[in-house]
Amino acid sequence: MINFEMADPRVGPSSIADVHISPDHRRALVLLVPEGSEQEQAATIEALNHAKAFLKQQLTERLGLFKTPDLRFEAAIPASLGAKVPQILKRIKKGRPRE
Fold first, then answer.
1. What does pLDDT average to over the chain?
2. Which CATH number characterizes residue 21's domain?
């Protein structure tokens, strides 16, 4: 839904790393791994937090839930490290040690 159906241009490609739901099921913390620069990652998180009512409504309809938790989006890893993840994965794939 996030990568393919969001119309907000601030929302960049991202992956959901984890979801933590409170014991009373009222709140859900969605941990994302957004792609792009630090500014693009911050814009993605901000846009998703702005669109959380729309996303909550879509989840309620699609999953047939009676009650859906309030959503909050955060980056799973710091933005400074997030921009380096593709490079780190390439190094691992090639088997090169860190320079």
1. 85
2. 3.30.300.20
